Give the backbone structure.
Amino acid sequence: MRKEIFSKKILVYLAFGAIFFLFFREKFIFFLLCFTAGILKYIRMVSNLPAAFEPVFFFSIIITKTYGFSYTVFFILFPNFLPEVFSGRLSHFSFTWILQMLLYNILALFLNFNIITLGTILLIFDVFFSGAIHILGKDKPGFAVVYLSFLIINFIYFTLFGNFFLQII
């Protein structure tokens, strides 16, 4: 009996999701990207993983290029800020990162390159900008490991998945 009720609920949720996707495809994909990036960031924050694998930066640039900057502002706040609040990891660097993300996405609006080149340029820009902020802010030594993983993983996201995401959105 319980399995039958459970399977009916799943079917109802899947049907609702399919209808929502058909009628509100743009919003559905946007919220799916928000949810995915937010959950991955939360998992990293609560498990203290030394690698920044969440696609917040990558997705924000994709969203800026496809949906526009107003969607990006919401995206930067939802999957970036909320996981830090809920995990208890909110710090002054969280606010500087949000400002950096907004700056990088404003730059993405004006730079007219393909997504791989754009992502690479923004990551190089971030090397200098973030490095200066964290050196001046006297951040923890472990920052270098997390930051290096951020650069490598986001470069992989842009090169392998950038064009794919632009096509499906």
Q: What stands out?
A: DSSP finds seven helices and no strands in the chain. The chain has one domain: 25-168. The CA atoms of residues 144 and 162 lie 25 Å apart.
